[in-house]
User: What shape does this take?
Amino acid sequence: MPERITESVLNAPSTVEGRHWERLDDGRFQCNVCPRFCRLHEGQRGPCFVRAAGPNGIVLTSYGRSSGFCVDPIEKKPLNHFLPGSPVLSFGTAGCNLTCKFCQNWDMSKSREMDTLADAASPETLVRAATGIGCRSVAFTYNDPVIFLEYAVDVAVACREAGIKRVAVSAGYVTPPARQEFFSEIDAVNIDLKAFTEDFYHSICGGHLEPVLETLLYLVHETPVWTEITTLLIPGENDSDEGLNNMRGWIAENLGPSVLLHFSAFHPDWKMPDHPPTPHATLIRARAIAQGHGLHNVYLGNVHDAEGSSTYCAGCGARLVERDWYQLGDWGLDAHGRCLKCGEEMAGVIDGPPGTWGRRRLPVRLKDFEPGGRKHNQPIDRSAALRTPTRRRTP
Ligand code: SF4
Assistant: This one.
């Protein structure tokens, strides 16, 4: 049964008209942002928590509100071939359109409290904070940004106008029209491919696999968005040799061998407290399966594994980027992103020397960058943000 919104939420400044919906003959409104296609009576919320039916159509109830801000290394999204070593201003809101039982961010994604959205965050203030701190990009992360599309697109446009890159972390569970609007303002994305069976998506995530695969095909073949993929390996659920082989085969055949695949370790959380953490050996096995059949760039995450975190040349096998957790070490690329040993171009977006942000995680008080805030008038360092990287992708 859908939850209801109160009159005060409906009239709040954070509630704005939504896009991608239609009015049905029976008077309900259908949200067309994600493949759930929720049909809502006036006053009802969708299961994503942030979209609801108002008197005149679907509204977004979390515009300009965030659950918090932090500067992270871009490798933490994870994006390993997009401006390596650079800092990214990360933020999220609340709610999610999937119901993954293993959610590792459940405090935000499953939130039903507007308190979670305590931080006001106008697009202009976000841009001011990113440029003031020297971030090369802003990331929509922690929860899926497609559900707050109207807000995310406004932030992304403001970032583009200021020369800040736009990064999304998403499950890719979005309809074609909403997908086109959202990703037209995104420079790089990590898509969370939860598993490679419909049964997993249906029984554990409350969704379907096919729309996610369609989003991956769309991103790689129809957009310039730099795309990487992450799969969280859960013992006994999505870590079989057969499943990993099927996933690897589909990616290689349909997206190409250069598309990055990250395997990350699960920690017991949310509705799966009894599942064990992913053994390191499982991650190593998954990487070997994926690499053994032609994927050039397979990484391990949420685990200390310098070899599985580093980048190797697809041509000669030389180490191109050394990583230890999120700390970069030796750098084997020239200024154009080519291997120093054999000249092979690395797939990705490389812009000169590596960044030096390291492993730091810096919480940010956005209030400081609002008009009247103590950092509002400080000089803005746009030099890092305004460099325009060349997009590269090997065939
Ligand atoms: S975004 Fe998805 S879950 Fe949320 S209201 Fe729209 S269709 Fe429903």
Observations:
- The longest strand covers residues 226-233.
- DSSP finds eleven helices and 20 strands in the chain.
